[in-house]
Design a protein that fits this description.
40% of the residues lie in helices and 22% in strands. The protein is an alpha+beta fold. It has a single domain, classed as Gcn5-related N-acetyltransferase (GNAT) (Aminopeptidase).
């Protein structure tokens, strides 16, 4: 991603993240908006130049159709590649672009000498969860709740 593309991507990603927390995490809008902004500002302190963070633009036929945000992180037992976002435009979904993005992430991890990829996915995102299962990802933890 180029520096001039970063502000538009960040705005769309913050909005998407907030909407996901509202829809699938039961968070009120104000709290979700505040958390989304805080998380992005905390993680991407230097924008597109933030060390160990890599935001990729996904293109198809010369048009931007999505984004892939990866980062190098330390887990409790090892260094991993963390997938913060795979976002494919609605009109481009169903054409294998999410799969291709995740396969790219696997190659990228291998190039970095990493043997593991981790990510979070909201429970209501059945399409993404299905893709990750097909690609060999295991659920490590499941957080559940019930609104009364």
């Amino acid at each position: 991603m180029r520096a001039d593309e970063f502000p538009e991507w960040k705005a769309g990603s913050v909005e998407s993240y907030s909407a996901d927390m509202q829809e699938n995490g039961g968070m009120p809008r104000d709290a979700a908006d505040a958390k989304a902004i805080s998380d992005f500002d905390r993680l991407l302190t230097q924008g597109v130049e933030t060390p160990e963070h890599f935001v990729h633009v996904i293109e198809e036929d010369g048009s931007v159709v999505g984004y892939l945000w990866l980062a190098l992180r330390d887990s409790p037992s090892e260094r991993v590649l963390f997938v913060y976002e795979v976002r494919i435009a609605e009109e481009a979904r169903g054409r294998g672009l999410g799969r291709a993005a995740m396969e790219f992430a696997e190659r990228f991890a291998a190039e970095q000498g990493l043997g593991r990829i981790e990510l979070n996915v909201m429970g209501g995102n059945d399409v993404a969860r299905g893709l990750y299962r097909v690609l060999g990802y295991d659920e490590v933890a499941v957080y559940m709740g019930k609104t009364l």
